[in-house]
Amino acid sequence: MLRNTETNWGAVARAFHWGTGALIIGMFAYGLWMSEFPAREDRAYHYAIHASIGISLLALMVARLIWRALNPTPTPPAGSAKWEITAARLGHIGLYALVFATLVVGWFLAGSGRRTLDYWLFGIVPMPNMLGTESPYHKPLEEAHALLAYAMIALVVVHVAAAIWHARVKRDGVLARMTRGSSA
Ligand code: HEM
Ligand code: HEM
C-alpha cells in the first residue's frame, strides 16, 4: 500500500522516513568530518557537497510534510498511556522543528563567511546566497548550526531508544509498522 491507513504507514511515508533519516544522520557525520579535519585544499569542495545535499534534503522534507498532510496519520496502538502519546507527539514535533531549523540556518550560514556560495547545487542549479560574504552574522550562525545539529542528534538518540523500547519491551508493533508497514 502506497498510502497510510489509520493503523499503518504506507510505502511512501516509510520511504520518506528512512530516506531522509539516513540522509540526516549522514549529514551530521559529514558536517563533523569536514569541519574537524585539518585545513586542506578541498575543504570548500566538501562544504559545497554538504550544502548541496542539505538543500536537496530541505526539498525532500517539504515533500515529506506535504505527503503527511495528504494522508491519515496512524493512531497510537490501543492501550497507549496518555503520557506516551504526548511524549511521542512532542518528540516528533521536536524532530521536525530541529531538522528544519538546522537546514535553514545551514543555508543562511553557507556563503556568509570569507567565501561566497559560488558553487551550484551539484553543479546543476544555482543556490541563492542568503546573506553575502563577510556577514557579521557568520559566527553566530556557525554556532547556531552546530548547536541545532547536536540537539537534533541527541533527540534522534532518544527517538531510536523509544523505538527499541516499543519493539523489545512493549511489543506493540510500532517499530514494525515503520519497517514492514504492518503491525500485525
Ligand atoms: C540536517 C541537515 C544538516 C546537518 C545535520 C548538518 C550538520 C552539520 C555539522 C554537525 C556541522 C559541523 C559543525 C561544527 O562542529 O562546527 C556542519 C557544518 C556546516 N554546515 Fe551543516 N548540516 C546540515 C545542513 C546544512 C545545510 C542545508 C547547509 C547549507 C546549505 C549547511 C552548511 C554548513 C556549513 C557551511 C558548515 C561549516 C561551518 C563552519 O565550520 O564554518 N549545513 N553541519
Ligand atoms: C534507526 C533509526 C530510527 C528508527 C528505529 C526510527 C523509528 C521510528 C518509528 C518506529 C516511527 C513510527 C512511530 C509511530 O508509528 O507512531 C518513527 C516516526 C518518526 N521518525 Fe523515526 N526512526 C529512526 C530514525 C529517525 C531519524 C534520523 C529521524 C529524523 C531526524 C526520524 C524522525 C521521525 C519522525 C519525525 C517521525 C514521526 C512521523 C510523523 O508523524 O510524520 N526518525 N520513527
Structure in words:
The protein has 184 residues and is mostly helical. The chain has one domain. Helix content is 65%, strand content 2%. The protein is built from five helices and two strands, in the order H-H-H-E-E-H-H. Strands 1-2 form a two-stranded antiparallel sheet. The longest helix is centred in the last third of the chain and has 33 residues. The chain is elongated. It starts with 10 loop residues before the first helix and ends in a 5-residue tail after the last helix. The model has no long low-confidence stretch (mean pLDDT 94). Bound molecules: protoporphyrin IX containing FE (2 copies).
Tell me the strand order in the biggest sheet: 1-2
The DSSP helix count reads 5
Low-confidence stretches: none
Ligand types: protoporphyrin IX containing FE
List the domain count as a whole number: 1
Oligomerization state: single chain
Produce the secondary structure layout.
Layout: H1 11-36, H2 43-69, H3 82-109, E1 120-121, E2 125-126, H4 138-170, H5 174-179
Antiparallel strand pairs: 1-2
Helix pairs in contact: 1-2, 2-3, 3-4
The structure holds protoporphyrin IX containing FE (HEM) (2 copies).
Residues 17, 21, 24-25, 68, 73-74, 88, 92, 95-96, 99, 156, 159-160, 163, 174-175, 177-178 line the site of one protoporphyrin IX containing FE.
